[in-house]
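Final report, Chapter 2: Outcomes

The project's central promise was a pipeline that accepts a single protein chain and returns its three-dimensional structure in a standardized token representation, suitable for archiving and comparison. That pipeline is now operational. To close this chapter, we reproduce one record exactly as it appears in the project archive, with the input sequence first and the structure output second.
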Amino acid sequence: MTKKDSDVDSKQGVQAAETVLQVLTGFIDAEPMPMLKTLADKIGMHPAKVHRYLVSLSRMGFVEQDAETSRYRLGPLSLRLGFAAISTVDCIRVAKPMMHVFCEELGQTVLLAIWNNGPTIALKESAPGLIVLTAMEGTVLPILSSAIGRAFGAWMPREKVASLIENELLDLRTHPVPGCPTSLQEAETLFDEIRKRGLARTTGERHIAFHALSAPVFYGNGDVAAVLCTVGTAGQFDTTWSGTTAKTLRTAASRLSSALGYTN
């Protein structure tokens, strides 16, 4: 192969990589499971061309297609790649050495979640003998039925969470969950109460066996950096707003916020 041929191949390879990445960027800030036409319109590419790349991405595990609706979503490898990037975020780097201390102080499993197109568990700390949750790092949680999601819903900019809230409300109207809102007005009332208390809470909405409390963590500029959550077994977990667990969690979240430069 001549040097000229090698340069051409190199350029073609880079161009193909750029096209693949362009297709993947179509999922950024998109609805949870966009249609092919939606993705194509968003990135300004012909649907047939986008489809060919999606087929390859599906084979590699970066994209998945729903068999019933033919809609697309990011696959497990995309999520792993995204989580690798997330792990370098300042709040995770700062929080990681503090998680064991929080776990000991609370005497319960502690989770740290960040926003990655949804409330995403980034760190988990469980002391020996404590209940072990099946939710692992990288798990994306719902807004309305999880304590972590509710905290994000209360403090995140509304444009970031609006589409997720709307989709969850549609499902909750069809399949109601005790304690969860079924209208936007009810959701707004819930978020107002959470902001007033400084904490979000679930008492079996996500899973009947688990109760949880969560608190927001802020960057120095006041933006939400993460949500700190503690989880325990129903009947053995103090979910009262003024209880020891709630006070300890507020203090822990405040310390983490301070470490990120936040002053209140």
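Archive annotation: The beta strands are 63-65, 72-74, 109-115, 119-125, 200-203, 210-218, 224-233.
This record, like all others produced under the grant, will remain available to the consortium after the project formally closes.
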